[in-house]
Design goal:
Layout (H helix, E strand, L loop, with lengths): L11 H10 L9 E4 L4 E3 L13 E4 L2 H6 L3 E2 L19 H11 L2 H4 L2 H7 L4 H12 L3 H19 L4 H8 L4 H12 L3 H5 L13 E6 L6 H9 L7 E3 L3 E8 L2 E10 L4 E7 L6 H12 L5 H8 L3 H9 L11 H10 L5 H15 L1 E2 L9 E2 L3 H5 L10 H16 L10 H9 L6 H11 L11 H6 L8 H9 L6 H11 L8
Parallel strand pairs: 2-4
Antiparallel strand pairs: 1-2, 1-3, 5-9, 6-7, 7-8, 8-9, 10-11
Helix pairs in contact: 5-6, 7-8, 15-16, 15-18, 15-20, 19-20
Length: about 500
C-alpha cells in the first residue's frame, strides 16, 4: 500500500489501545488501515482486532483512500463523526472543510477555496496534508463518495439521484469512484441496504453520528428557550425548524438517539443537489463534530472549570441554521433578556417571514431574507431607531456581499469586521462568531453570566480580569463559556 499520507503525529500505542477497547471517544479521530486486508476501519469496528504490526493509523478517511485502502463494509466509515480538523488547532482548515462540505469543490477550484479562507493554494494544500493527510481535492472526493455510500445504504433513492445528491457531475464518475474505492458497483450495495428509509411527506431520513459524550439536554434546552414562533419547535427528544436554501423552502426534524450516539434527521426539501449542504448545516447546528475528549482535557486544567466539566461533560456549542439569522437575532438580543430577544425576533418573523407551503403546524414561516429586512419599516417591532438602522444596514451589507460573515480567515478579523459596524460591540461580535461561524475560541467578554459564574465584580476592571482568566482556556474559550453558562442553569443539566 502507498503510505505517503501519514504526516499526523498519531500515537500508535494510544490508537491501538483505543482499537482494542472499541473506545467510542476515538471514533472519527483516526482510522485503522490493515496492511494484510487492504481495508480501513473506524476504532469501533466489531471485526476481529488485527495485530498491531499490521496496522497503520491515519488521520482521515481521505488519507486511507489515497493510500490505497478500501472502506470497511461492517463499521461503515461514511457514518463516522467528522473530527479530523480537531486533531490540530488550525481554524483555517476547519473553515475550509465546512466550505468543502457545502460543495465548494464540486464546481470551484482549490485556488478559489483558498481565496475564500484567505490563503494561497499551496499553503492550503500544505495545511491539509499536515492535519488530514490528504489534499483538499482528495478530501472532497472522499466526502462525495462516502456520502453517496450512506445514501445508498440508508435511503431508497434511485442511484441516479444518489449521484446527484452526493455531488457527482456524471453517472460515469459516480460508478468509477465506487469501483476504484470499493471494487464494487454502487448497485451491489443497494441489494444489501434497507428497502425504505423515507421521512415525512416524501422526505429523506438519515442518521448522523457523534462521538460521546453529548449533552442533548443542554442543547435541547438552549434551543427551547430561544425557539422562534412559527419557525422552530422543540420537544424532549426533537428539534424541528423551517429553512430556506437557494430561494426554496423546506423543513427538517431532528430526533436524538442516545443509545446509538446519533441523531435521526428527516429532511423535506425539493432539491436533491442541496442535500449535502443541509446535512452539513445540521451537523454544525448540533455541533456533532467536535472532539469533546480533547476539549474537556484542556479545560479541566483550570480548577474553575473542573466542576462544570465533570458534572456535565458533553456540553457543546449550540450552532445555528444560518449565520445571518443568528446575527440578526444577536442584534435583537442586545441589552434585553433571552426571552425579550426571542420575542423581538418572533415579531420580525411574523412581520416579514414568508409562508412555507405544506409545512407542519408550527413551522409555517421562513426567517426573513436580507433584502426583506433591509427594505422594511421596523418601527413597529419594539426596538430603538438606532437598532432598526443597524438591522437594515447589516442586512444590506450581507445582501451586497453574501460572504461578508464567512470570508475572514482568523477570529480576530471576524470580530474586527463586525465591530466596524456601528452598534456592534465585542460581545455581539464574539457571540456571532461562536454560534454562527463555529469559532471555538470566540469569547463574549463582559457577559453578565460569565461575570457571575466566575465570581467577579461588575466594574471597569472586570473585562481585563475575565480576559486574563480566559487566556488559560485557549483555543476553546467558546466551550468554556458554555460550561460556565451551564453552571448557572442546573435545570439544563442532564436528566
Amino acid at each position: 500500500m502507498n503510505t505517503r499520507n501519514t504526516p499526523n503525529p498519531l500515537d500508535r500505542d494510544q490508537c491501538y489501545q483505543a482499537l482494542l477497547s472499541r473506545d467510542k471517544s476515538y471514533d472519527g479521530r483516526f482510522f485503522t488501515a490493515v496492511l494484510t486486508t487492504g481495508i480501513f476501519c473506524r476504532p469501533v469496528c466489531p471485526a476481529k482486532t488485527p495485530k498491531k504490526e499490521n496496522c497503520t493509523f491515519l488521520p482521515s478517511a481521505a488519507a486511507a483512500l489515497a493510500a490505497g485502502f478500501r472502506p470497511c463494509l461492517r463499521c461503515r466509515p461514511e457514518v463516522s463523526p467528522d473530527l479530523p480538523a480537531w486533531q490540530g488547532s488550525a481554524s483555517t482548515v476547519s473553515r475550509a472543510l465546512r466550505l468543502i462540505n457545502e460543495g465548494a469543490l464540486n464546481e470551484g477550484s482549490v485556488e478559489d477555496l483558498a481565496d475564500r479562507v484567505g490563503l494561497g493554494g499551496r499553503h492550503l494544500r500544505r495545511l491539509f496534508e499536515q492535519y488530514l493527510g490528504a489534499s483538499p481535492k482528495e478530501i472532497a472526493d472522499t466526502r462525495r463518495l462516502l456520502f453517496a455510500k450512506q445514501l445508498i445504504t440508508e435511503t431508497s433513492l434511485p442511484l441516479t439521484e444518489v449521484a446527484l445528491a452526493a455531488g457527482f457531475n456524471s453517472l460515469r464518475r459516480f460508478n468509477d469512484a465506487f469501483l476504484k474505492s470499493y471494487q464494487r458497483a454502487p448497485r451491489d450495495f443497494r441489494r444489501r441496504s434497507v428497502t425504505d428509509a423515507g421521512g415525512p411527506d416524501g422526505g429523506l431520513q438519515l442518521t448522523l453520528r457523534y462521538t460521546p459524550p453529548y449533552s442533548w439536554f443542554w442543547t435541547r434546552n438552549y434551543f427551547r428557550t430561544r425557539a422562534l414562533r412559527n419557525v422552530e419547535l422543540v420537544s424532549d427528544h426533537r428539534y424541528q425548524r423551517s429553512f430556506e436554501l437557494n430561494g426554496r423552502g423546506g423543513y427538517l426534524i431532528v430526533e436524538h438517539l442516545p443509545d446509538q450516539s446519533a441523531f435521526r434527521v428527516d429532511i423535506v426539501y425539493p432539491e436533491l443537489s442541496a442535500l449535502a449542504v443541509i446535512v452539513s448545516r445540521v451537523r454544525q447546528m448540533l455541533d456533532l463534530d467536535c472532539n469533546m475528549q480533547s476539549i474537556n482535557q484542556s479545560l479541566k486544567q483550570d480548577g474553575r472549570l473542573l466542576g462544570p466539566v465533570r458534572e456535565n461533560p458533553g456540553i457543546r456549542i449550540p450552532g445555528c441554521w444560518d449565520p445571518f439569522e443568528l446575527a440578526i437575532r444577536a442584534i435583537l438580543g442586545q441589552q434585553v433578556s433571552v426571552e425579550g430577544g426571542t420575542t423581538l425576533a418572533s415579531r420580525l418573523v411574523r412581520k416579514l417571514g414568508r409562508p412555507l407551503a405544506g409545512a407542519p403546524e408550527g413551522l409555517s414561516l421562513l426567517f426573513p431574507r436580507p433584502e426583506d429586512i433591509a427594505a422594511a419599516d421596523l418601527s413597529d417591532i419594539g426596538i430603538p431607531r438606532s437598532r432598526q438602522e443597524l438591522l437594515k444596514s447589516f442586512s444590506a451589507r450581507v445582501m451586497k456581499d453574501p460572504d461578508f460573515l464567512r470570508r475572514p480567515a482568523q477570529l480576530e478579523d471576524v470580530v474586527q469586521n463586525l465591530c466596524a459596524l456601528k452598534g456592534i460591540g465585542p460581545w455581539t461580535a464574539n457571540y456571532i462568531a461562536m454560534r454562527g461561524l463555529r469559532e471555538p475560541d470566540a469569547f463574549p467578554v463582559n457577559d453578565l453570566g460569565l461575570i457571575k459564574a466566575l465570581g467577579l465584580e461588575q466594574n471597569s476592571k472586570s473585562s481585563l480580569g475575565m480576559l486574563q482568566i480566559a487566556e488559560k482556556w485557549r483555543p476553546f474559550r467558546g466551550y468554556a463559556t458554555m460550561y460556565l453558562w451551564s453552571s448557572l442553569h442546573k435545570d439544563f443539566a442532564d436528566d
